């Protein structure tokens, strides 16, 4: 009985140790740094391309590609939580003056509990959809995970900034010389080394010619950007269309001068118009944008990626993290505990004064 009691006291003193807490915190911080330096949750092909097969196998054995769900990281969190709990119980003295400290200590335990729940049960994956497509499966590291509802993409919308300037390169073929200009609509630019100048008259993002022979844009998407240029020379002027999808365009008067349009698309916004389907019935519609996710039944869908070559495709990040709410509760209690502790100290000093 005495030996058993001594062993229990040794174990208790071991977990009461501040040194143990410092060691565990240091290891957790180091693990978090490694998790920041090594990208998490990439595909096998991406890891092999980045690190090579030999290093990939070593990192995979150490669970460095999914540190926050690895058994050893969960063990570190569990030990730190146990250490904090035993330290709190060992030093627990219930009184009005210690009330703030009690809340502060137990708020840290709740935060660690939330982190532990996240490490054990959180899911972070990816789902891709084409317009009109419905899915009830998302993927975590190429492994399928089923949803208890379907997500359908009704429409995917990409918005571009209207370019304020355009990049035009002018080639002087006979002189083997080129010049690049950042130009604005309506302004005249002189071509150095020649008697020519030019003015950009019009910009069309998706150029086409309608049945009446008019120049129009099919859409606001820059699928076929074009500029209407007026070239001025000593004997007059002429107008030419310059397209970004064609390398260079000679002007009619002088074949030694060519233009190339270097279009740079700048995405303003992209958003997914989705609907949630359960038992064949639409239960929710939502527009998902960057920083405006869809939340439904514990899952959060973030706008993640797009492909300009496939404007009807979207990529959404899928996150389910039941530990987040406990972390939030822990931080709220932590602030309350700190405020109460500070207030009690001020009150004590006031009484002494």
Structure notes:
This protein has 353 residues and is α+β, with helices and mostly antiparallel strands. Helices cover 35% and strands 36% of the residues. The two termini are 52 Å apart. The relative contact order is 0.14.
Strands in their spatial order, largest beta sheet: 1-18-17-16
| Secondary structure tally: strands | 18
Which shape, going by the Cα principal axes? elongated
Low-confidence runs of at least 5 consecutive residues: none
Topology (SSEs and partners):
Layout: H1 2-16, H2 18-37, H3 44-51, H4 53-61, H5 71-90, H6 99-121, E1 123-130, E2 134-140, E3 143-160, E4 166-172, E5 177-183, E6 188-190, E7 197-204, E8 207-209, E9 215-217, E10 226-233, E11 236-243, E12 249-250, E13 257-262, E14 267-278, E15 281-288, E16 294-296, E17 299-306, E18 313-320, H7 324-352
Antiparallel strand pairs: 1-18, 2-3, 3-14, 4-5, 4-13, 6-7, 7-10, 8-9, 10-11, 12-13, 14-15, 16-17, 17-18
Helix pairs in contact: 2-5, 3-4, 5-6, 6-7
């Amino acid at each position: 009985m005495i030996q058993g009691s001594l062993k229990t006291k040794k174990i208790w003193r071991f977990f009461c140790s501040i040194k143990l807490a410092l060691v565990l915190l240091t290891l957790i911080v180091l693990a978090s740094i490694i998790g920041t330096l090594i990208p998490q949750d990439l595909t096998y092909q991406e890891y092999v391309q980045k690190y090579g097969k030999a290093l990939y196998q070593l990192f995979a054995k150490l669970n460095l590609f999914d540190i926050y769900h690895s058994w050893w990281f969960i063990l570190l969190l569990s030990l730190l939580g146990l250490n904090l709990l035993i330290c709190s119980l060992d030093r627990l003295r219930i009184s009005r003056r210690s009330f703030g400290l009690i809340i502060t200590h137990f708020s840290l335990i709740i935060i660690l509990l939330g982190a532990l729940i996240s490490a054990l049960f959180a899911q972070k994956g990816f789902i891709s959809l084409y317009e009109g497509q419905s899915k009830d499966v998302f993927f975590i590291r190429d492994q399928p995970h089923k949803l208890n509802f379907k997500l359908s993409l009704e429409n995917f919308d990409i918005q571009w900034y209207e370019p304020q300037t355009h990049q035009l390169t002018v080639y002087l073929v006979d002189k083997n010389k080129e010049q690049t200009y950042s130009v604005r609509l309506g302004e005249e630019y002189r071509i150095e080394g020649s008697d020519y100048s030019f003015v950009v008259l019009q910009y069309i993002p998706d150029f086409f010619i309608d049945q009446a022979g008019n120049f129009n844009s099919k859409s606001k998407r820059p699928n076929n950007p074009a500029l209407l240029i007026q070239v001025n020379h000593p004997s007059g002027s002429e107008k030419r269309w310059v397209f970004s999808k064609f390398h260079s365009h000679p002007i009619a008067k002088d074949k030694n001068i060519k233009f190339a349009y270097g279009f740079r698309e700048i995405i303003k916004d992209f958003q997914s118009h989705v609907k949630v389907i359960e038992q064949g019935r639409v239960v929710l519609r939502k527009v998902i944008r960057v920083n405006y996710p869809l939340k439904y039944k514990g899952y959060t869908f973030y706008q993640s990626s797009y492909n300009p070559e496939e404007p009807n495709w979207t990529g959404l990040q899928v996150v389910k993290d039941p530990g987040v709410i406990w972390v939030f509760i822990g931080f709220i209690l932590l602030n309350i505990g700190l405020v109460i502790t500070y207030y009690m100290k001020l009150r004590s000093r006031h009484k002494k004064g």
